[in-house]
Design goal:
about 240 residues; mainly beta; seven-stranded antiparallel sheet; about 0% helix; globular
Length: about 240
């Protein structure tokens, strides 16, 4: 930005930018436990629009899948007003629930008369201390066509002392199905942009971590083929609820 106020955290992530609209938390909750099915569907609050951003995190204290991990793909179904969390491993997958945070950028101006407000060049509210915000700790932009990944672990400068993988949320908007292969008839395998929470595994020399990439093969899915949720370039955000 060329003028105004800009506040960044220790890792260089912009928390307040007087020209950009911040994300207001409008709902939090916990999904149902993951069913014996390829994906889990959760309703969004009524009235949200295409500016909605959804962050999720496994509601667990340890990984249960391959190599002590919980891995997912996901996307937002705007027409149905839901978000979907899908499996990326067909064995030993997490059967618990996920915590979620729903945010929007179209904030209404608060009426309390207290705190700090910033506005965009056209007069829209950009940031207000009256609203609870997500605290971004890492963001990365990558291309699905050429591959790419995002990696964040307990050695990263913005990994807070005493926190564990489940304390960090990832953005569903940056995930999604990005390819599919027909096996036979109505049987399909999807490929996806995914993210995995990993807990410390001393036997493998692994620390607490969160990582994501594109191109992981998904379990077989039968039935009606739905449209892919795909953009060539996307930005993933890892955040904490504050």
């Amino acid at each position: 930005m060329a003028y105004g106020i800009e506040v960044k955290n220790l890792s260089g992530y912009t928390q307040i930018d007087g020209l950009d609209r911040n994300l207001q938390i409008v709902a939090t909750g916990t999904t149902a436990n993951f069913p014996q099915a390829p994906y889990l569907t959760t309703s969004l609050p009524l009235g949200v629009d295409s500016s909605v951003v959804v962050f999720v995190s496994p509601n667990t204290t340890a990984g249960v899948g391959y190599s002590n991990t919980v891995g997912i793909w996901g996307y937002i179904d705007y027409a149905a007003n839901t978000f979907i969390i899908g499996r990326n491993l067909s064995f030993s997958f997490y059967q618990g629930s996920f915590n979620y945070v729903v945010c929007v950028a179209n904030q209404a101006e608060p009426t309390s008369g207290y705190g700090l407000n910033t506005y965009t060049g056209v007069g829209d509210l950009a940031f207000s201390s009256a609203y609870k915000q997500m605290k971004g700790v890492l963001h990365d932009t990558y291309s699905l066509s050429s591959g790419g990944d995002i990696y964040f672990d307990e050695t990263s400068p913005s990994w807070a002392s005493g926190t564990l993988p489940q304390d960090y949320y990832v953005m569903i908007n940056a995930l999604g199905r990005v390819g599919r292969v027909q096996l036979s008839g109505s049987s399909w395998v999807y490929r996806c942009s995914f993210v995995t929470w990993g807990w410390e595994n001393e036997s493998l020399g692994q620390v607490n971590r969160i990582f994501g990439a594109s191109g992981l093969g998904l379990p077989q899915i039968s039935g009606t083929v739905t449209n892919l949720v795909s953009d060539d370039t996307r930005t993933q955000v890892i955040a904490r609820s504050i």
